[in-house]
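Summary of Year 1 activities. Much of the first year was spent building the evaluation harness for sequence design. The harness presents a backbone, in tokenized form, and records the residue chosen at every position. We chose the following record to illustrate the format because it has been used consistently in internal testing since the harness was completed.
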């Protein structure tokens, strides 16, 4: 009898170039055979399209992409991780021998697209939520091999907390979460489950009661408040769509009922099938949102990698497929809403509409496979995203 297994790529397989598409493997063979491996090229990474109704995206996954390219004879220019970017604006340029980069395109694009898609969707929900908390609860929608990467991308995008236990080990983030319906059902009595949770974890974990398992949300919220008193920090409403009706009405009803009984200190967390529209509708009546699938299964930010220049006779020659700009481009930023594109090698000053000098966004992160720039902390990347979100509109 065949034993079950997990189909997970190893780090060694990624770094060696085995985690790639067959056509890149064959390309590497042909490049070596016909003397193309040493041809110097510049590859530009762009999003020539964004998901429907998106006019910007958040660039994430740079650290992992650099980990893949480290040690190869390649030079990498990139915008800082967390940069908000627009369609057709380059986020990365990779320079070096064609044969040295061929095997790695699948992997580095994969981590950039995966992380940027999750970070972008989280940022959009963060924008909709205003000052209310956003918690990422979407791991169950993903393969467990990518849990730390998903939590990292969601945090970069503006989530206030993530739920993955491994987030502490890999990211230094304290995971947050309440309790599942399964726990309450196993006890057979929501009061017993709430009491056991409070007694077991005490003050080390904020007491949040899940209040929609057996009875009406208002009834269970008051039951929890009466049982736990000041220990109860919040109630979580995870009402299934089949019983939901208008969620705003349910939240308002719970809020009025708690306030009327003197439990104004109890906050309300809403979770379960939330997306941008629901978050925006509820942000003035709820205190926090647990968002899962809509972030984990975010619309793909369609980053692609294309040769844009080839080094010929001592200089860079524009060369690209149809539909792509045949020049390695630099982005000059005045603000998130004012940017200019120029050839990478054009170092002449670029000025903003107010007369100030624009700054180039793409900077060198790696030279000949060696990291030449310090990488920021996770909190610094997240803070950078939040500052830019103040300026952009949805």
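For this record, the design step produced the sequence shown next.
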């Amino acid at each position: 009898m065949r034993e079950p297994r997990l189909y997970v790529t190893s780090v060694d397989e990624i770094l060696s170039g085995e985690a790639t598409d067959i056509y890149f493997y064959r390309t590497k063979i042909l490049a070596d055979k016909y003397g193309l491996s040493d041809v110097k090229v510049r590859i530009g990474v762009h999003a020539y399209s964004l998901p429907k109704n998106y006019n910007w995206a958040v660039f994430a996954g740079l650290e992992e992409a650099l980990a893949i390219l480290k040690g190869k004879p390649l030079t990498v220019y990139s915008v800082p991780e967390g940069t908000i970017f627009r369609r057709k604006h380059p986020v990365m340029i990779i320079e070096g021998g064609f044969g040295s980069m061929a095997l790695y395109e699948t992997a580095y694009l994969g981590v950039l697209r995966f992380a940027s898609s999750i970070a972008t969707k989280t940022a959009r929900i963060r924008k909709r939520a205003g000052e209310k908390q956003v918690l990422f609860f979407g791991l169950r929608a993903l393969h467990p091999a990518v849990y730390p990467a998903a939590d990292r991308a969601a945090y970069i995008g503006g989530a206030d907390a993530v739920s993955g236990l491994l987030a502490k080990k890999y990211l230094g983030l304290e995971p947050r979460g309440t309790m599942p319906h399964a726990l309450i059902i196993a006890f057979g009595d929501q009061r017993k489950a709430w009491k056991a949770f409070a007694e077991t974890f005490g003050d080390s974990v904020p007491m949040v009661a899940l209040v929609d398992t057996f009875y009406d949300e208002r009834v269970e919220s008051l039951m929890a408040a009466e049982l736990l008193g000041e220990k109860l920090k919040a109630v979580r409403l995870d009402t299934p769509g089949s019983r939901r009706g208008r969620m705003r009405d349910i939240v308002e009803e719970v809020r009025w009922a708690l306030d009327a009984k003197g439990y104004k200190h109890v906050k309300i967390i809403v979770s379960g099938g939330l997306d941008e529209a629901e978050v925006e509708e509820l942000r003035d009546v709820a205190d926090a949102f647990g968002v899962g699938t809509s972030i984990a299964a975010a619309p793909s930010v369609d980053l692609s990698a294309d040769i844009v220049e080839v080094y010929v006779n001592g200089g860079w020659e524009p060369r690209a497929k149809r539909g792509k700009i045949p020049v390695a481009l630099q982005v000059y930023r005045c603000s998130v809403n004012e940017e200019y594109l120029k050839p990478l090698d054009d170092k002449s000053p670029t000025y903003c509409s107010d007369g100030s000098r624009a700054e180039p966004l793409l900077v060198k992160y790696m030279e000949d496979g060696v990291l030449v720039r310090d990488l920021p902390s996770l909190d610094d990347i997240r803070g950078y995203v939040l500052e830019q979100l103040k300026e952009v509109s949805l």
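The chain has a mean pLDDT of 96. Quantitative recovery figures across the full test set are reported in Table 2.
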